[in-house]
Amino acid sequence: MGAPIDPIDLVDVDALLSGDERRWRDSTRELVHAHVLDDVEAWHDREHFPTELIEPIAAAGLLGMHLDGYGCAGASAVSYGLACMELEAGDSGIRSFVSVQGSLAMHALWRYGSDEQKDRWLPDMATGRAVGCFGLTEPTAGSNPSQMRTRARRDGGDWILDGHKRWSTNGTIADVAVVWAHTDDGVRGFVVPTEAHGFASIPITGKRSLRVSAAAELHLDGVRLPGDAVLPGAEGMSGPLRCLEEARYGVVWGALGAARSCLETAVAHATTREQFGRPIGAFQLTQAKLVDMALELNKGLLLALHLGRRKDAGDLVHVQTSVGKLNSTREALEIARTARSILGGDGITDRFPVMRHMQNLETVITYEGTAEMHTLIVGEAMTGLRAVHVASRP
Q1: Over the range 209-242, which residues count as b (16 or more CB within 10 Å of their CB) and which as e?
Q2: Mean pLDDT value across the chain
């Protein structure tokens, strides 16, 4: 037999990356090793997002890294995906912070905001001096966000916002919220400073998944905003849905980072843990599990890379992003579960990252569109038949 093959990169995906893409990947991996891995289990236990991480993450250029101008790095979609993968290999909550900051809040401002809104917020958000959140999901409007009940009404030259958003990542640490609401002219987005009178963020506690994440409910009780607080470039549901599409792309890569961490842990354990006089990796059933995990990870990486290349070329369509998100999250969760079985009883302890990743992936497979919704999106594209009935506005 020749030299051992890399058990994580069986088909040499690394050879398909450019030098710049590798630099983004490697620098993000170094950041995770230096600032995340030693403390992440404690953060998870405490249900705590470490705000001290914002400075090194910003210094690494990761906030809004795929946007141009305003102090953003202007990196490629593939580079951004690789960074998401490395961040989620640390923890889904850390990647989620970067995704919401850059792909939801910053992207909404960058794509739909006025020059004044961009100048006011984007430079500070790129450097981490300001944190953003995104208010779309509501207690009664999840997979069907058009059913939102948050309202914005005119009062002279001002807007008055009333409503209740839920599952807003970064909500408890945000300086600005991009909030979507029904108006007399359809759904519009609003730039809401969190210091505004009548705005409140309440942490969502008791989570058994994505615990290293500052998830919040946003309450808007007569929040008065100036007339220019509306995002001028977004009208209707296409605005928030395109922002979700941007964030969803990062999940395609991010889930694979959690999966890779689980596979690395399983391989290391299988080659060192002995039972019946030999390493458990010498048994056929264990090898079958490891091979299946590695195959799905490598196929997922090739798919993510292909989608990233299409995105960089301007050719990626939303159905393809749904294919990627559905595949990555579903297979990553299965990899985590299989890795846990290889680790046996120790797999449920914090000696290993596997159970934490498994818990997180139970959320990742749900947010940015559930697995069921992405299945139906792909099914409609394949058949031309719509399986989802969209109810009218409440």
Answers
A1: bbbbbbbbbbbbeebebeeebbbeebbebebbbe
A2: 96
Pick left, alpha or beta for residue 368 (phi over 0 → left; psi -120 to 50 → alpha; otherwise beta): left
Residue 185 in this model has a pLDDT that exceeds 80: yes
- What CA–CA distance (Å, rounded) separates 367 from 198? 28
pLDDT tens for each residue of 295-317: 999 999 999 999 999 999 999 99
| Segment 124-144, tens digit of pLDDT | 999 999 999 999 999 998 888
pLDDT on residue 391: 55
3-state secondary structure 174-216: CCEEEEEEEECCEEEEEEEECCCCCEEEEECCCCCCCCCCCEE
- Does the CA dihedral 338-340-343-344 come out positive or negative? negative
180 - beta bridge partners?
A: 189
The beta strands (E) that lie in the chain are given as 132-135, 151-155, 158-169, 176-183, 186-193, 199-203, 215-225, 274-275, 278-279
**264 among known catalytic residues:** no
Beta strand 274-275 with 278-279: parallel, antiparallel or unpaired? antiparallel
- The DSSP code sequence of 328-364 is HHHHHHHHHHHHHHHHGGGGGSTTSSHHHHHHHHHHH
Contact present, 160 and 222 (Cβ < 8 Å): yes
**Beta pairing partners, 159:** 154, 225
C-alpha to C-alpha distance for 186 and 235, rounded to whole angstroms: 7
Measured in degrees and rounded to the nearest 5, phi and psi for residue 3 equal -60, 145
Residue 389 has pLDDT above 80, yes or no: no
CA separation for the pair 92, 97 (Å, rounded): 9
Q: Which of 30, 217, 368, 372 is catalytic?
A: 368
Burial of 343 (0-12, 13-18, 19+ CB in 10 A): buried
